[in-house]
Amino acid sequence: QVRLVESGGGSVQAGGSLRLSCAASGYAGYMGWFRQAPGKEREGVAAIQTGGGGTYYADSVKGRFTISQHNAKNTVYLQTNSLKPEDTAMYYCAAEHKDGESLLDFRSWFYWGQGTQVTVSS
Fold first, then answer.
1. Average pLDDT of the segment spanning 3-17
2. Average pLDDT of every residue of the chain
3. Which of 3, 38, 69, 70 could disulfide-link to 75, CB 3.0 to 4.6 Å?
């Protein structure tokens, strides 16, 4: 089992930036970031293959968000730039997903953190 702890959320104005962190208790081959706004389904934001470094993004965040890793610390980051009010959500870190299934589908991931809130005001 992998335990995940997120940090770095907060409140910013539109156009601002936040850096989210996710510390894992052990190695995970894949890690991802998801978000969920009130009344909406959890959606994939970005994912990374920690061994090979391949990265994957939702169209809504391409060019604005960057997922990266610190291998020695089993930590994954999500740099969020040019934030918009529609980015407001609880952001969750996930680890390990089912082979062959979409990396941006929350149903294909096994382990989850408790989440960190991101609020963007206009």
1. 98
2. 95
3. 70
